[in-house]
Structures are given as structure tokens and as C-alpha cells.
Specification:
The protein has 271 residues and is an alpha+beta fold. It has a domain of 185 residues: Adenoviral Proteinase, Chain A (Adenoviral Proteinase, Chain, 3-Layer(aba) Sandwich), CATH 3.40.395. Helix content is 44%, strand content 9%. It contains eleven helices and four strands; from the N terminus they run ααβαβββαααααααα. The chain has a four-stranded mixed β-sheet with strand order 1-2-3-4. A hairpin with a 4-residue loop joins strand 3 and strand 4. The relative contact order is 0.16.
Length: 271
């Protein structure tokens, strides 16, 4: 990727095959793509900043870890992020998106700095296990960002500290689909502009066969978006290879019947 010379590997993108858990590297690649797209945002759109999954390692988001350790790491990380994106001050950013991966499940934290709010988007319906699912991750993440904003003299830092994480009841939430959580997260990052669920044009159907077809199409769409983005320095090479593949005999383009098993095996071996 052109912004940070970050390397991504083919096996990571193979996780976009249907019914495979999306690898964290795909979410990070999408982060680069979305940050690049923000440079072309329309007038009046919020300035959104997308961060890497688990920008603070989860083992740091517990009571026994000193707050200063979290604060110092976030300060260093945000300095690098803003420098890479040529953002001269965090006060210019309206919204921050933070994917969290915990026990193979992906959910999204969104900090709205312009009209202070703190939201958590999760495609899975929440049952009695809510405490176990999120633990204190949202609270620690909010607090360390508030401390960072205070250091940066952000005018809404204290208002953000007063916010508790809201978990909206999304019409497209699922009860049985766990493996598409990464796709839901990328969809939420791509489409959410703030203001809550009302008026949010996410485009996803309620849980159904139709929704599953949508999610499969999004796996293809997001793979193409990442590979052909201007931030991908191998974009032109990939397009050439794709055109060569299109010219192959149809029989040579067929995947083996065991393709899903092969991909899952490669995910285990190499990632």
C-alpha cells in the first residue's frame, strides 16, 4: 500500500471466499482504501478517519495495565497515522472508526467528535453474554482516546468522556451468521456517516437468504475495490493478470470442488 509501504499477502485475501472468516489483514487493507477515498469526499460530508483493527492490543485493555502505557502507545500510533495521511491536527477529524477483533468476532467502535457520541456496531444479536462479548474494551478505548484528545486540546474531549457506548438495534442484525462479521464491519465503515440508524443507507436486508447473497456479493466487491484501489502499488499488474485469466479456456478457470477446504487449510497454515 502506498501510504505506509504495508505488505499484504494473497492468503489474506483468500479469506474473502464465502463462509470463511475475514482475516484482519483485509480489514486493514480496507482501512487504507477508505482513508484514501476520504480525500475525495463530497462537500458537507464528515471527515472520517479509519484506524487499523485493534489499534491497541486487547491485552492492554484491562484493569491491571497502567493507563499511561495505553496512553503513550496511542499517542505514538496516532502521531504516525496523522503523519502518513498528512492530517495536521486531530481536531480536523469528525469521526473515528475502530474495528475490534475479539475471539474471531469483529465489531466496530465509532467516535463522533463533532456531535459527541460513542457507538458500537455489531451484526450479531446481543444476548445475555453481552458482558463477556465486549468486556471493558469499549470503556477503556473511550478513556484512552479521551486522554489523547485532552492532550490535543480537542474542544469536545470532556463531552466524549460523558458518553456511554450505545449499541443500536440494527434492522439487519443476525442470529446465525457469525462468519460474515468482517464483511458487516467493512459495510458499516463504508456507509456510516453519523446521526444514528435513522437515515443510515446501509443497503443490507434483514437476516435472510437475500442478505446472505448480498454478503457474498460484497466479498467480491470489496476484494475488487482493495486490489484495484489507487493505494495498491500492484494495481496495474493485478489488472493485467485478471485480463489474462479472462482469456483462459473455461475449463482451466474452474475451481476444484475442494476449494473451500483448501482455503481454510491455507488460512490455518499461513496465518
Amino acid at each position: 500500500m502506498t501510504q505506509t509501504d504495508t505488505e499484504f499477502y494473497k492468503v489474506m485475501f483468500e479469506s474473502l471466499y464465502p463462509e470463511v472468516y475475514v482475516h484482519a489483514g483485509v480489514l486493514e487493507a480496507m482501512m487504507h482504501v477508505l482513508n484514501e477515498e476520504e480525500k475525495q469526499r463530497s462537500p458537507g460530508s464528515p471527515f472520517r478517519l479509519f484506524l487499523t483493527p485493534n489499534i491497541l492490543p486487547l491485552p492492554l485493555l484491562v484493569k491491571d495495565v497502567p493507563e499511561k502505557q495505553r496512553k503513550d502507545l496511542l499517542n505514538d500510533t496516532m502521531t504516525l497515522v496523522l503523519s502518513n495521511l498528512k492530517i495536521n491536527h486531530i481536531n480536523k477529524v469528525d469521526m473515528i472508526f475502530i474495528p475490534i477483533i475479539k475471539s474471531e468476532h469483529v465489531f466496530l467502535l465509532v467516535l463522533d467528535l463533532k456531535t459527541p457520541s460513542f457507538e458500537l456496531f455489531d451484526n450479531m444479536v446481543i444476548g445475555d453474554e453481552r458482558v463477556d462479548r465486549y468486556e471493558e474494551i469499549p470503556t477503556y478505548m473511550r478513556d484512552v482516546f479521551v486522554n489523547y484528545f485532552l492532550d490535543q486540546d480537542h474542544p469536545n474531549a470532556y463531552k466524549l468522556y460523558q458518553q456511554t457506548p450505545k449499541i443500536p438495534d440494527l434492522p439487519w442484525k443476525t442470529t446465525e451468521n457469525g462468519e460474515d462479521c468482517g464483511i458487516f464491519c467493512m459495510r458499516h465503515m463504508k456507509t456510516y456517516m453519523g446521526g444514528g440508524v435513522k437515515g443510515w443507507k446501509c443497503g443490507l436486508l434483514p437476516e435472510s437468504d437475500g442478505q446472505r447473497r448480498q454478503l457474498q456479493q460484497l466479498r467480491i466487491k470489496y476484494l475488487c475495490k482493495i486490489l484495484t484501489s489507487t493505494v495498491n502499488i500492484l494495481k496495474d499488474d493485478i489488472i493485467v493478470q485478471a485480463r489474462e485469466h479472462d482469456r483462459l479456456d473455461p475449463k482451466k478457470k474452474q475451481w476444484p470442488k475442494t476449494i473451500k477446504k483448501m482455503i481454510k487449510s491455507r488460512q490455518t497454515r499461513f496465518l
